[in-house]
Amino acid sequence: MAAETPRHGDGTVEDMIKTRNLTLGLAGLLLLTSACSNQSNSATTDTTAGAGLSKVLFLGDSIAAGEALPLAAAFQASGVGFQSIASEGGGNVVGPFSDKNWEKLPEQITSAKPAVVIYQLTTYDWGSEQEQQAAYGKLLTTVTGAGAKLVFVTAPPIRPDDFYKPHMAALDRSPNVARAVAANAPGQANVLDASAVWGATYQQVKDGKADRSSDGIHTCPQGAARFTHWLLAELARLFPGFTPAAAQAWANTGWSADNHFKGC
I want to staple 126 with a disulfide (CB 3.0 to 4.6 A). Which of 15, 95, 216, 226 is the partner? Predict the structure, then answer.
């Protein structure tokens, strides 16, 4: 089975997002290029994590690996521990490579001692509905057994190439399967619909700037930043003791120049 080819490159973010309208996906975010790193902001930041969100463990594929870059900066600024085990060419709990992932995943979750495990559904979550349900249920059991809560997050829509086209029915089904699993575990599992960030279809350019990679799969710094701002707001809703740091505290900390971002 062919593995996903990692896509790396340089990326920067320019004066991107200036409104607080979440329905437009802009979320009050101001990201600056490194050349503007000395610009000051008078906003204050409450970095008290509060109960229920002492540490977050982030799971997913290479899309999640890119999103983990601003997430790490944002959680650090928010006073929350963060660890990503998102994987290039894998990271899934069902479908190809998942058997290998399961050999190490339970220990990774237990040793991380997270309060919350976030699993962004991957582009490899292939399989029948029964296979998906069994895998998501196994993940839930593993996470709760480690004393944590599970949050599923839907993946951004992709522009499928010949590699993905045969599996789109399974990928399109996976959010509803995750919802069914979470519905059977009230208080232990939730599903967050990230279409508020990405829309229903792949969109490379948003607000006049690159939001998604030209490869049709990954995110650009702007998209990863918008996702981060949205996710932190959703976690604050789920865990009222958590107060996210303002975007100015994490948006311009150098992560946007990471070579993970390419095609932007």
Answer: 95
Structure tokens at 110: 């237990």
- Residue 83, judged by CB atoms within 10 A of its CB (0-12, 13-18, 19+), counts as middle
- What's the one-letter identity of residue 152? F
pTM for the complete prediction? 0.83
Q: Which of 44, 30, 114, 103 is nearest to 80 (CA)?
A: 114
116 neighbors 143 (Cβ within 8 angstroms): no
Q: Which two tokens stand for residue 9?
A: 């490159």
Q: Using an 8 Å Cβ cutoff, are 250 and 70 in contact?
A: yes
Taking the chain (264 residues) in runs of 10, the rounded mean pLDDT of each run is 35 30 35 31 33 88 97 97 95 95 98 97 97 98 97 97 96 98 96 97 95 97 97 96 95 93 94
